[in-house]
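Narrative of accomplishments. A recurring question from our advisory board has been how the design workflow behaves on a single, concrete structure rather than in aggregate. To address it, we present the structure tokens for one chain from the evaluation set, followed by the sequence designed for it. No filtering or post-editing was applied between the two.
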């Protein structure tokens, strides 16, 4: 009875101390059930040779977490690897980033976490805590971990005025007005959350970069953020505007071959490193969507990137040069990055890496992988994913993105025969490269729960976990995240995991199934506007450029009889995509213009199949509502209610997508919507 009372008192204390508002993310360290807590008793924290700031963080975090989960205090000891102790130890000879092992000691055993540096110990500590949080057996451990990518980076599209481009979780976390004098406690919380999932870099500002970010005034502000991030193993990077020499430095030009411009960047790099000694480097969006770049001066992307690379080289900084380029006159936007960058392969300085969006257009709910992966073999490439849900329902809709990220990373490019996946082509295992990296456009903001939708936290989480190890399964990651974020109760974990795993495909189905892309409303990219036609606007910003609906059929002919984008892929993929019979149906309309009465693999016509896909998307969202409604008793009311409300909005908006797209495409197909599909509830004119 006393035990029960104790547990009860302990639980209510925990509940009292922390509101369940999502602010604690996956680092909630909830009390473990008593039988498990007993199993963990008696362990002593032992830290050797770690006197750094990071060492102090490890000691504090581990003690507090252990206390919160087990109710027991740990004691620090420097000398003795005693029975039941947990030992954090630097081992310079260790090839892996860290190991966690159960090792024998007199009368028992202890847990040893070893790494060549304190950052590895930090990751090892979070790994061990994760095992405890998810109630895994830690009695016999033999874990060896090495990250797949050296640089695992969040890109913030945050502006100087505190707004965030494509941000759906409030304003920027960075209080530029108050920095450097006032330091928000959230900087530490942000760094801690990132460290817990292995993220080790942060680009603080938008790729649509204001030149001011590299002024002395702003460097001093960024330096304060970097100071907080440093012991958590996170390097600061900045996006730079290519016209900075002219706009910030007052030079008459920003031509990358002009000696004064080159010197300006060298001086700027020197200044940056005097203020930010471990600065990571530059991210650059150039000659893209109206931003300046080397082509303004008749120079190439390589000329521009190499000039910056030379300036950063003495300090080991890198340049992440984006391949997101397209122009209004191109007959196929999906081909452009390849056309502009392939001729430059091998011409980049060794500290340049080309940052390439996962798909050739723009973070659509489904795209094939960008064909530059595997093709540029003499230049390091890094994948850029979007974590913020610009094209997947903002923070209003549930879309767990691990399946999307994995679909790209596991795609076989066939660059060096079968098995040349995008992951292997970018992690250094097929093409040796000095720099390996991966980036995700962050979905964080100053909302209490960080990401707007409670489930959007899982996308931040899964990006970090996959950046560390792309072989983890979406299911495994969802499992961990749910247990740490909500509860270990199987009656909650299992249905919610299934809901998450189904959610991305649901969004594809009710937004743009079968390889359709970019049917989005003008500018905000939330709802459907497949009919959009603004006189005089850029054609490649209009949905009809992508869907090509006409009386004959639907889809973009990218085969050898069309734009020939298929030729940018290696055989046999090229041939598979080129043939309507072998093209995967989930990309059919990406590569083919398909007649409305074309027979799909299941015998349905294209038109009927399209209708069934939209219906399947809507049906899934209703299932999500049903699943969620049954979970009320397992979690706190606040998060339950907030998610319940968002799932209702998602169903409502999925119906809008279905009605808008089917009613619009019906004006071309001139066929009835099959009986098994819900009748439209909106009129096309009303939706328009
Ligand atoms: C930061 C898309 C988005 C833009 C974004 C751009 C990019 O076009 O809509 O908001 O700009 O991608 O990735 O540079």
């Amino acid at each position: 009875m006393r035990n029960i009372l104790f547990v009860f008192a302990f639980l209510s204390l925990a509940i009292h101390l922390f509101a369940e508002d999502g602010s604690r993310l996956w680092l909630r360290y909830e009390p473990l059930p008593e039988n498990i807590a007993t199993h963990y008793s008696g362990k002593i924290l032992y830290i050797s040779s770690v006197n750094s700031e990071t060492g102090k963080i490890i000691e504090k975090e581990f003690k507090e977490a252990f206390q919160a989960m087990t109710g027991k205090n740990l004691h620090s000891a420097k000398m003795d690897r005693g029975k039941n102790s947990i030992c954090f130890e630097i081992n310079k000879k260790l090839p892996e980033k860290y190991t966690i092992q159960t090792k024998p000691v007199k009368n028992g055993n202890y847990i040893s976490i070893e790494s060549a540096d304190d950052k590895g110990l930090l990751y090892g500590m979070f790994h061990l805590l994760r095992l405890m949080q998810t109630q895994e057996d830690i009695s016999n451990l033999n874990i060896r971990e090495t990250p797949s990518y050296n640089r695992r980076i969040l890109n913030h599209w945050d502006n100087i005025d505190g707004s965030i481009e494509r941000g759906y979780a409030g304003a920027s976390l960075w209080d530029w007005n108050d920095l450097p004098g006032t330091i928000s406690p959230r900087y530490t919380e942000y760094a801690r959350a990132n460290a817990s999932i292995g993220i080790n870099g942060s680009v603080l500002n938008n790729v649509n970069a204001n030149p001011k970010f590299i002024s002395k005034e702003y460097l001093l502000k960024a330096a304060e953020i970097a100071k907080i991030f440093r012991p958590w193993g996170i390097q600061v990077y900045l996006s730079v505007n290519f016209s900075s020499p002219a706009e910030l430095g007052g030079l008459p030009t920003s031509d990358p071959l002009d000696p004064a411009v080159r010197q300006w960047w060298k001086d700027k790099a020197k200044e940056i490193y005097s203020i930010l000694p471990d600065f990571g480097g530059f991210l650059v969006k150039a000659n893209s969507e109206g931003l300046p770049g080397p082509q303004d001066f008749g120079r190439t992307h390589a000329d521009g990137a190499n000039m910056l690379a030379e300036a950063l080289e003495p300090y080991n900084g890198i340049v992440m040069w984006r391949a997101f380029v397209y122009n209004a006159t191109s007959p196929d936007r999906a081909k452009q990055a390849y056309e502009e960058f392939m001729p430059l392969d091998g011409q980049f300085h060794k500290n340049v890496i080309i940052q390439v969006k996962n798909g050739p257009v723009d973070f659509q709910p489904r795209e094939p992988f960008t064909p530059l992966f595997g093709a540029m073999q003499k230049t390091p490439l890094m994948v850029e994913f979007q974590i913020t849900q610009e094209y997947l329902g903002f923070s209003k809709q549930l879309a767990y993105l691990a399946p999307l990220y994995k679909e790209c990373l596991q795609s076989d490019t066939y660059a060096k025969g079968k098995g040349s996946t995008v992951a292997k082509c970018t992690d250094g295992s097929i093409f040796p490269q000095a720099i390996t990296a991966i980036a995700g456009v962050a979905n964080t903001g100053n909302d209490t729960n960080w990401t707007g939708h409670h489930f959007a936290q899982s996308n931040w989480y899964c990006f970090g976990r996959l950046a560390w190890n792309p072989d983890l399964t979406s299911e495994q990651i969802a499992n961990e995240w749910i247990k740490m974020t909500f509860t270990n109760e199987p009656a909650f974990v299992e249905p919610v995991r299934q809901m998450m795993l189904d959610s991305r495909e649901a969004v594809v189905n009710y937004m743009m199934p079968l390889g359709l892309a970019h049917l989005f409303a003008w500018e905000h990219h939330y709802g459907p506007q497949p009919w959009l036609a603004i006189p005089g606007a850029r054609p490649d910003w209009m949905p009809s450029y992508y869907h090509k609906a006409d009386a004959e059929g639907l889809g973009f002919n990218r085969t050898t009889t069309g734009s020939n984008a298929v030729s940018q892929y290696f055989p046999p993929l090229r041939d598979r995509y080129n043939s309507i019979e072998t093209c995967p149906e989930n990309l059919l309309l990406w590569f083919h213009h398909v007649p409305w009465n074309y027979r799909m693999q299941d015998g349905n016509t294209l038109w009927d199949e399209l209708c069934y896909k939209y219906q399947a998307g809507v049906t899934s969202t209703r299932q999500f509502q049903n699943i969620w409604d049954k979970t009320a008793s397992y979690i706190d009311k606040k998060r339950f209610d907030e998610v319940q409300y968002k799932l209702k909005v998602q169903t409502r908006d999925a119906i809008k997508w279905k009605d808008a797209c089917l009613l619009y495409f019906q004006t071309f197909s001139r066929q009835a919507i099959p009986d098994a599909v819900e009748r439209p509830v909106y009129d096309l004119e009303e939706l328009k």
